[in-house]
Amino acid sequence: MGSNNTDVKNNESKIIFVGDGNNQIGENSGPVNVFGSDKSRITKNEGVVSIIGSTNEIIYNNGKNSPVAIVGNNNSDVTGNKNKAKVNVYGNGNSTIARNEEDSVITVLGDNNKDINENSGSVSIVGNNNTGVQSNKNLVIVGHNNEDIRNVSDTFILASNVINVQSNSVVLGNASAGKAVTEVSNQEMAGTTYNFAGVASQDNGSVSVGAEGKERQIHYVAAGEVSATSTDAVNGSQLHAAYQDIKLNDARISNMETKVDRINGRIDVLNKQIHAAGATSMAMGNLVQAYRPGQNSTTVALGHYGDASAIAFGLSTVADDSKWGAKISFAANTESEFGAGAGLGYFW
After folding, report:
1. Best label site of 110, 178, 277, 294, fewest CB within 10 Å?
2. Which residues of the chain have pLDDT under 50?
3. Start and end of every Trimeric autotransporter adhesin YadA-like stalk domain (predicted)?
4. Using CA atoms, how far apart are residues 299 and 16, in angstroms rounded to an integer?
């Protein structure tokens, strides 16, 4: 139905045209349904080809049991997709959706998406101007202007303008970036090693909500379990509670440090006093004693102990009959302490 349809030949299946200017529809072995104008080079396809729209061209050499559905205008180069690959394009100006693997399901919903090549599994693109989506497996992109998404698997992108996408991961938010997983299983703190639950791995992937210089806050996070085996996220109120406890412990430690400082001060004073007492004892112990009947003596002695010094002065006497003796002494030390002693003796 329509005009100027040319080169419709060597097809082995049912061909339906509704529109004008369609040409080079040849060597197809699967049904071809064309609704619209200006289709060209729809050739050598072995599966069902359904096109609704205008100026779609070069739908070529798609494999056996590989249905191609195009709804829109100016889509081109849907070529070389392998056996049992399913290609669905809904939009305008999408091009080079090619060489996708067997049993893959390629869905493009949007405009001007290009170079969707050599993918496997399920690859879905919803958005505009996504380019260079190649050699991926099981990928979802919802966003615009994403480029060079290559060699990743089992990844979900809800973002535009992303970079450095990783496998097994989720990327959220405009201009976000993926990042390789850092595996952390333990941490040493103050000489003690703490083991962590839920060790990350690249096989499990990561979730990114921003990029360097474009970090984002996550709001309205419920309080998570805090335990040795928990892998929950915690929120600000939990950190605040922990910080309050830390501040209380800091205050207790500060009070303890003050008490220890006081004790240390007292010990220092006691040490000085002990040294001074030792110096005083040594000085007084070295005073010379009168020893003959009727003899009197006046003596001076010095003493030193630790970092203290002392001086002592003494008087002593012995009775004429040698039966009695007496002694008195005085001392002062470098701690400004003074001492005195006296003694009386009977000899027989």
Report:
1. 294
2. 9
3. 218-247
4. 138
